[in-house]
Each structure stands twice: as structure tokens, then as C-alpha cells.
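Revision sheet: C-alpha cells.
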Amino acid sequence: MLKESRVHEYWEQRAAKQGMQTVGFSNRSLDFQSRLHKQRIKFIFPRCPQFLKTLDFGCGTGNFANCFESYLGVDISETLLAFARATHPEKDFILLEQPIPSEKAILLFNPELFFSATVLQHNSDNLVRKIFKSIAQIEQDMIFSIYENCQVIAKHVKGRESEEYLALLGESFKILSSRSFSHCVHGEKHALTIAKTEPL
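Predicted:
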């Protein structure tokens, strides 16, 4: 599992080496990744709201930017954000200075939906806990849409079930309701967790 201090370095190195292929299965072609992305889009939407003010945490190259009407993408890699801005010039993106979001622009945006897809799985339980705690500073009702690989096995990734994300989320938010959906992508179980929350 990546140490918090190495997250920025890790993603910048990958982005410099792999370019647009960094996001997803980096050892596969962009055409292959595009087919998987379409599969994910078909699964995630319409289950996930699309017309709320959306914070896309770990937006990478902005693959999901066009899925949301009101959108702010954030990522720790300037290289990946350069791809995102070039591909989606009409959308807003900001650089995270550290893995834990603390930028004022996020507070000013005042998101109603926290969206993250195959990002949190790259972070330790403690770092995910810190991310949720930071988002809780917005102090408003919020929907969380978390799409992650449950079965991935790699030294830099931790697969989690929906129940595990809800337990971490529940440390910083009161969970009013939640739903979980799953499907198989590239032979591995992926789950979408939708949770309505309010401040503790």
C-alpha cells in the first residue's frame, strides 16, 4: 500500500510514463480501456445522480467529466489534469497539493455529490478516513457515489466491499441510507456504493 507521502510522486511517475493509459488497466490499449469505460458508464448511470454539484475525487484524465452537469474534478497529478483540461476545456479542474483535499476551491464549490471511481482503492484505510474527514468540513448533506474494485490484488491497491467503505464513511458522516450494486469487469467484482449522508 502506498504511503501518504509517496502518493503524488507515484502518480506523477506513472502519468509521465504511461500518459492517457495511466487511468484504468495501464498495461492495456486505450481502445481496450475505452470499452471497459463504456461498460462502467452503463453500470454506474443512471444509479448515480448526474444533476447535482459533483466533486470528482481523483478525476485523472477526466473520463467522467461529461457525465455530470455541474462538475469540479480534482486530482493530485498535474500531468493527468493537463490531459483532462485539454479533453474537457469546458469543465473545471484543480490540483490537489496533497492526497487529503483541503483546497478552498472545494469548499467554495460546495458539492452535493462526492464521486470517486477506482481511486480510493489505491489508498490505505487511514488515508481514506482522512479524506472523508476533510470532506466533512463542508458541513452539509451530501451523497457519496463510490465505485471501486472489490477483488483487486496488488501491492499498491486494496480491494474493499461496500460495507467497508460505509464503515469508514460513517466515522465522519451520519449515513441516512445506502445502496450497493455490483458487476464484473475484466473478471473482477466492482461495486457501486451510493450513500445519502448528513453532518454528524
